Amino acid sequence: MAKGRGEIELAGIVKSYDGVTRAVDGINLKIPDGAYCCFLGPSGCGKTTILRMIAGHEDPTDGEILIGGEDVVGLAPVERRTAMMFQSYALFPHLTVRDNIAFALRVRGMAKAERLKAADAMIEKVKLGELADRLPNQLSGGQQQRVALARAAITEPRVLLLDEPLSALDEQLRVQMRAELRRMQQDLGITFVHVTHTQQEAIALADMVVVMEKGHIRQAGPARDVYAFPKDRYVAEFLGGQNVFTAKVEATGAGEGFVTVRPPDLQPIRVPVAPGRAPDAGSLADIAVRRDDVALLKPSESVDPALSTLPGRVRALEYQGSFVKVMLDPVGRDEFIAYVPERTFFATPFQVGDLAVAAWQAGHARLLA
Ligand SMILES: Nc1ncnc2c1ncn2[C@@H]1O[C@H](COP(=O)(O)OP(=O)(O)OP(=O)(O)O)[C@@H](O)[C@H]1O
């Protein structure tokens, strides 16, 4: 397949259902050829609508959809060379695995011998060899998913669209199938667009994560960018793993690369800021500090001046195996949590009710938009 054929470009995409409500409200995005892209967002944010418009099951109210540089609005899915894998898998219950996989080729008029040969090659690729003669109800959920994926992939689409493909599986299988989806995407070498409301799923799978809210893109980029460098409170809270609190800007520290902010009822702390980006003194700013960047000190311990600190009482503890989740007094209205590596925690443990000092490298905090 020629390079670049699976690149997707969404330009000014709008979808309104009743002429008023905009399920999708002006989306601009380029998904590179061969990328694994995850749309992530809460229920109703427009993820499925975008997927259906790329697939060709729905037309945008406005805007252009280009696949491989070609405007595909108005073209049927077959003409776009897209394939969709649904939540329910939609396998034919009376057809064997092999016949389910070969079915799409039958619809396209391929001769029987030829399509069974293609189906067997695909069965080999997705490691379903021993199950080829079984019916769907004789398969596990994970195996059914593999058949559904093989059935979508056999038409050699340039883009494969997956709507919550893992939601029907239990937790353990979900993690296993996640790795398998990634492996299959790499084997097939085509663009995958996957819709999910699960943050772990998106960051584990995707080359590109697109975080959505109410028909808009809030942030799009590599998984690590959206997780470690969220732009705003919404993205930070949706991706998780961060403390986000509001603080008042006290001094903008011109030229020093830091601003000084004061969280409610607490001492000021320093937060790095890019040149020319300092908010006005007196304004309110949202600050993010990763939970796993926060260390807990005893109130009597001396503090390295490179650290920012917030004193607080331990409200609750949760053992998580590799770390301990320590909930401290909230900062204003926002909860404040430290993820302390379990060995570190148990070397000098804290009890609920103890006073503690949360500390982090000043340079690791982030000023959000
Ligand atoms: N056929 C339709 N007619 C009217 N409104 C619709 C239609 N399909 C979707 N919507 C509305 O558009 C919005 C976006 O829906 P969409 O299914 O794209 O969201 P989603 O992010 O995929 O949510 P979920 O995770 O629950 O599937 C919702 O408010 C939904 O009610």
UniProtKB/TrEMBL annotation:
InterPro entries on file: AAA+_ATPase, ABC_SmlMolc_Importer, ABC_transporter-like_ATP-bd, ABC_transporter-like_CS, Mo/tungstate-bd_C_term_dom, P-loop_NTPase, Transp-assoc_OB_typ2
UniProt entry tagged with the keyword Transport: yes
A Pfam family assignment: ABC_tran
Localization per Swiss-Prot or TrEMBL: Cell inner membrane
A molecular function (GO) term: ATP hydrolysis activity
Keyword Heme among UniProt keywords: no
UniProt main location, coarse: membrane
SMART domains, sorted: AAA
Membrane topology, as annotated: Peripheral membrane protein
A GO CC term assigned to this protein in UniProt: ATP-binding cassette (ABC) transporter complex
Keywords: ATP-binding, Nucleotide-binding, Transport
Stretches assigned to the ABC transporter domain: 8-239
Assigned protein family: Belongs to the ABC transporter superfamily.
Protein name: ABC transporter ATP-binding protein
